[in-house]
Design a protein that fits this description.
globular, Jelly Rolls, mainly beta, about 45% strand, 4-stranded antiparallel β-sheet, single chain
Length: about 150
């Protein structure tokens, strides 16, 4: 049956970020509901941000589209070009290749919950645009790896 029992979907709280950058997403958790439903062409997550947490380091994807929809609470969408407050019922889309780093940051005193949807390209490069973040993520046939901007592997 295609119905997904959300109560049985595990909550994922980890990150692959190297230690200097992992703290930004402390307080973020995800239920990978697309995986639970057997989806392979795109991912769907229910993401929760505790107060003070970010969804990711500010980034953009070379090959993958992203979409977010705020279910409850509020978060600031912070992009290289500025920021805007997103509230329940608001959505944002990030086309592949658009070099405008983005992430969500919960600056409120309450939990924020949003739907996160992204395509799954066979190969991918994720650029992190904050000047203080010396990192990129690269996906190839052996999976994901994090490296410094000069190509050295973390």
């Amino acid at each position: 049956m295609p119905k997904i029992d959300l109560d049985t979907v595990p909550v994922f709280t980890g990150t692959g970020y190297p230690p200097p950058y992992a703290g930004a997403v402390s307080g973020r958790s995800r239920k990978r509901i697309g995986d639970a439903g057997g989806l392979t062409q795109y991912g769907v997550n229910i993401c929760t941000l505790k107060p003070g947490a970010a969804s990711a380091q500010r980034h953009w994807h070379l090959n993958e589209d992203e979409f977010v929809y705020i279910l409850s609470g509020e978060a600031f969408l912070v992009e290289d070009c500025g920021e805007v407050l997103l509230k329940a019922g608001d959505a944002a889309a990030f086309p592949a290749g658009a070099a405008n780093g983005h992430h969500l940051v919960n600056r409120s005193g309450a939990v924020t919950v949003f739907l996160e949807v992204g395509s799954r390209a066979a190969t991918e490069t994720v650029e992190y645009t904050d000047p203080s973040v010396d990192m990129r993520a690269v996906k190839g046939e052996n999976g994901w790896r994090y490296e410094r901007k000069d190509g050295r592997v973390w």
